[in-house]
Write a structure and sequence with these properties.
heterodimer, A: about 190 residues, mainly alpha, B: about 170 residues, 7 helices, elongated
Amino acid sequence: MSASTTPESTRSAPETDRALVAAYSGGDERAAGELIERHTAALGRFLYSSGADRDDVDDLIQETLFRAFRRLATWRGDASFRSWLFTIGNNLLRDHFRSAKGRRMLSLDAHDISDRRDPLSDLAAAEVGERIRQGLAGLPRLQREVFLLRTQEGAPYEEIAVALGTTPGAARVHYHHAVRRLKELIP
Amino acid sequence: MSECEWLSDRMPAVALGSSDWTGEEAAHLDGCLSCQAEWNLIRLSSRLGEGVGAELDPGAMTRAVLDRLGQSREEARLRRNAWGFAALAGTAAAAMVWAAQTVVTPVAPAKAPLVALQIQLPELDNLVPSELDAVLQTMDEPYVGGSVNDPAVASPDDEDLESGFDTWEG
C-alpha cells in the first residue's frame, strides 16, 4: 500500500455520499455500511417525527434502506442522499399507514393536553413534542416533508425543492402553511 | 421581507446550532409573541425524535440490508431463469404444434381448373347457321305444358309422358 493511501489519510477526508454510492455500485459493500451509519439516526428521527410508532421505526428504517439501495441508480445526486432517503421513507410510511388504518394515531384536541405553565419542563416538552408529532402526521405530505427537512436537517428551500420535485417558492409556501397549523398546537 | 419573516427563515439554522441570533434578532424575538410561538415550535421540532434511530446498531442494520439485497438479487435471478425457461418451453410447444399440424393436416386438393361444360351433340355438327338458329329458337321457347305445380304435370300418366318425350325429341 502506498503512503498516499494509508488508512489515516483516507479517514481524514470523509467520502461524500456520491462517492460512497459510486463505490457501492462498484461492488464495495463497506461503502453501504458507511452510508447506513451516516444516515440511519436521521432517518429514524424523520420517520418517528412523521408519525411512525416507535416500535415500528426499526423495521421502517430497514425497509427504507433496502428500497433505497435496490434502486440506488435512480438517485441522481441533485438533492442530497439524505433528502432522497427521506422521500422514500415518507412513501413507505404512507403505505404503512394505509395498511394499518385502524392503528393510525388520532389527532389530539386542545382539551387532551393539560395546561402547562412551563412548556420547557421535560414532561411538558415531551407532551408538546408528541402533540407536534401528531400534528405533523395530520399535515399534507409536502407540508410535512418540507417542514421536517427544514427543521431537522436545515435544508435550504432549493434543495428541498429538488428532493420533492417542486419549486423553492412552493416549498417556502408549504413550510409556512405547516408552521401556521402547527403553531396552533402549542400552548 | 419583514423582521418576522427574516427571523422565521433563520430559525431552523439557529435551532440546529449552525447559527446564532444576532443582537437585533434576539431583541425582536423578545418582543414578538408570534415569533416566540414559532421559535418554540421550531426548537421543539428540531429535537423531535432525538435518539430514536441512534440506538440502532448500524453494523447489524447494514448486514440485514445487504442480506436482503442479496436475497432479492437471487430471487430476481431465479425469476429471470424461470421466465427464460417458460419462454423456451413455450417456443418448443409452439414448434411441436406447428410440426404436428404440418404432418397431420391433409393437403388440400388442388382445385380443378374451371372447364367449360361441353355436351357432345354430333347431330348438330352438319347444320348451317340458319338451321342452328332455328333449333335454338325452338329451345328458347317457354314450356307451355303447364306449371310444375300443376297436378297434371306433377303426376303425369303414360300419355303425358309420351307427349312430353315427343316434344323434346322433335
